[in-house]
Amino acid sequence: MKSVKRKDIAIEAGVSETIVSYVINGNRYVDAEKKKRVLGAVEKLGYIPSPIARALKGKTSNHVLFIADDMMSEYFGIIIGEMEKRLSGKGYMISLSADKGDPSFVRRVLDWNFDGVIVGSKTMDNSSIQALISSGIPTVILAINEYPVFEGRYGIIYTGLKQGASDAVKAMRKTGRKKIAYVDSLSSREVLSTDYRYQGYLESVEDKVVISGASSQEELEIKVRDAYRKEHFDGILARTDTVALYAIKALKDIGLSVPSDVSVIGFNNSKMCEYTSPTLTSVRIRQDLIAENVLLLLTKLKEGSENIVISIELETELILRQSTIC
């Protein structure tokens, strides 16, 4: 059987391929008569991409896509596990995918019949997020970064990252720490100014020491050691628990003690925090509440059609352990 292309739909409907794309993606206004002809051609020829499939057949797939940065991350695994617990027995499937960083990835997402998309990627660009929202797929954003106001109907969950970073700095201040460094995640580029954790740090310190642009553990450890020799900081706020542990190793390699010489706080409250030496103080992000509210927002987004932003704000919790307690 011949595969139906958008060109075939355009010929059948008597419109341009651009008009066909506008109708299928739902991201531009199209004259009602032209839209009717395109939808008629779509149904006649059997070309049914995900947004149109829901409109024409009224069916759902019970399939939700979670877009993340790190497929191996414990953090995202816990959120998905909490979602699955709440969806148990309801026939839903949750898939995890890393953002591929190119427009073709978004097109492939739109070609599937997903009932909802959750964006938990700090690197996914704004135009790709806008394309998801404009497609009509219920979309929920986990606000890792500061985002613009997108056009359309979507949900956004503020997970308390900025305040969590500020609380971590204050906790170190209370133990007498005066110069606190920020250590970013592994990445070849410099720290993102829109990152809420970084923003919370910037707003809480005057004498800033920022360690970023390391693409491997070894490179990060070198940067931490070099920064200490130059700045003699006495506290570290790390973007993740893993990065915090890399930083601790780097400090120990030059004869420093944690927390006697340098206090260290991570983010995510991973299981590893309780088994390191010293045990690691960390900012707990409420994955259980994130999961609960993601499902709530997806349900609300399906129930209406007007353009609206539905937002939810959560708080973090600082879990104190040995890495900050002298």
Characterise the protein shown here.
- By secondary structure, the chain is of the alpha/beta class.
- Helices cover 42% and strands 17% of the residues.
- It contains 12 helices and 12 strands.
- The strands form 2 sheets. It has a 6-stranded parallel sheet, with helices on both faces.
- Strand 8 (235-238), helix 11 (241-253) and strand 9 (263-267) form a beta-alpha-beta unit.
- Helix 2 (17-25) crosses helix 3 (32-45) and helix 8 (161-174) runs parallel beside helix 9.
Can you give keywords for this protein?
single chain; alpha/beta; six-stranded parallel β-sheet; six-stranded mixed β-sheet; 12 helices; elongated
User: Rg, please?
Assistant: 23 Å
Residue share in helix: 40-55%
How many extended strands?
12
How large is the count of helical segments? Answer: 12
User: Could you give a short account of the major beta sheet?
Assistant: 6 strands, parallel
What fraction strand? 15-25%
Low-confidence stretches: 50-58
Distance between the termini: 72 Å
- Shape from CA axes? elongated
Widest beta sheet: strand line-up:
2-1-3-4-5-11
The average pLDDT value, as a whole number, equals 90
Structural class: alpha/beta
Query: Helix-strand pattern, N to C?
Result: HHHHEHEHEHEEHEHEHEHEEHEE
